[in-house]
Design goal:
This protein is α+β, with helices and mostly antiparallel strands. Helix content is 40%, strand content 20%. It has 18 helices and 20 strands. Helix 10 packs antiparallel against helix 11, helix 11 packs antiparallel against helix 12 and helix 16 packs antiparallel against helix 18.
Length: 589
Amino acid sequence: MILKKEVRKLLFQPLKFLGIENNSSVSEVYPSIPETISRDFVLTGILKENQTSVKVKFGYGDEVTETKIINLNTQSQTVKDWEVSTFWAQKKLNELEIFSKQNKDEIKDLSRQFGLVSSNMSLMVLENVEDYVRYDISPPLELKTQFDAIVKNNRAAKDARLKDLMGQAEVMTENLKAWWKKEYTVKPKRYPEPKSGRVASDTARETDIQEVVVTGALGMRKRDERAAASISEQRRERQMSLKEMSYVASNAPQALQGRVSGLQVGYRNEYSNSSALINPGKIKTIEVESKAEYMKLFSGTNDPKAIYKTYLQNRKKYEDLPPYYFDVAQLLFKNNDKKLGLKVLSAIADLDIENEELYKLLAYKLKQAEAYDKELFAAQKVLEWRPFDPQSYRDVALAFEDNGNYQAALDNLYKVLTQSYTKELADRDNGIEEIIIMEINQLIANHGAKLDLQNINPKIIADLPVNIRVVINWNKDDTDIDLWVTDPNNERCYYSNKETEIGGRLSDDFTRGFGPEQFLLKKALKGKYKIQTNFFGERQVGIAGPTAIMAEIYINYATGRQERKIVVFQNQKEDDRNEDGILIGEFEF
């Protein structure tokens, strides 16, 4: 019997549905393309009026051989026991999935609304009404009343959290302004004192103090022992010099503009704090090298073409391992071949993996390589997949800033403070407003003339330039990474010492989520600063490999003359880590 059916299929053309005649009373008819009729045939659509007649065409190949008239009447043909809309949605979904990439958004919306499983959605077991609320899927009729009540309550709770977030941002702005205005007095260095022996006289000590005296507003003069005046004359000279300095400082803006004998003077603009804080310094970044086994293939090779050739020879073996592409690209960047490095990175997109961890790392690497248009593309993909994470908006904002679109950068940063979040996410990311406030005000300080600030809450606008700013971000949820900054006095600023003697300030410790964490120092003390990260807790390893960190390192932030360097690396094996953290950079002032 089965054999006869198969032979029949070979000898005879099957009957096909070939469509309907044009009818303005119906829309969204599915199937909308020819379909072979096997047993049962279901035709679905949306009726705009109460009744109409539809002429359905059938035939063989492309030839219509017969038609059938179907009369539709909503008054007499309505059924209650069938979810007719679900039949229609499934038919539409079947056609959308023929071109699933182009129709991805519509597939997602349709699947969510009608509770259908598609290639773009995971299979979910919906056990109770809370599950329908969580995934925003319309429930069966018997759960609809309860569903609507929960949604209404959740909306009210989100609105309250949204109001609280802006209120927290206003409080944090005042907190940052108070920190910025605070004067931090560093305790003088103490030297060992002799327990016995000669004690210097008061006169001798005073003479030592006068070793260097101020002689004017334009410089310093070391005391010449052979031609020194008396102590009283020196004291009088110093007092006069200080008066002269005060006079010049108070009258320079009215009298002068430009440089005079090494003294910089000029008119103060709206952000008057910035110019006074500019402090020439240097940023040194430390490359954290990958210890992956495949890196041995490139050992001793510095020629980019040879590196690329080795990469191609071994790509088949590692083609499903994303860290392979990142590490090889980094090696090419290190050897000054940006073109080949970006070519290797582009292979990540060819893997066609929709994974936020992978694309966050891709965005980090592209930012480091200054491929800003591609960075924006990767960041926007993450925002598309995770629009409920504040970090997604921040990453897009920073990518817009890199591309010179400062208004879009400002708008997306502000969205972090004006989006509604679930209670879980609000708790996870509590404190992120401190980082966002600094970045909003940096945009205003550096590009204010190009920005429309009409919709920005004036209570979060503040002038907050700093000598040092470090921010770390990471690409995995449910991860705890710590930022450490050690100053020239050997005091470490970290999660249990968030404010240092010289004024270093650390933002809240993020023990879950994607960070970020931020270190600020208004006035840098002369000397070296050490920047480290510590992997306190990494709870999973996904397809993107170990957790990746991006550190943004700035000097003279929000002064108009800021400098930035980027460090990107992935966590190394547990037994290879330095117990005292991973050194990623240094400042020197």
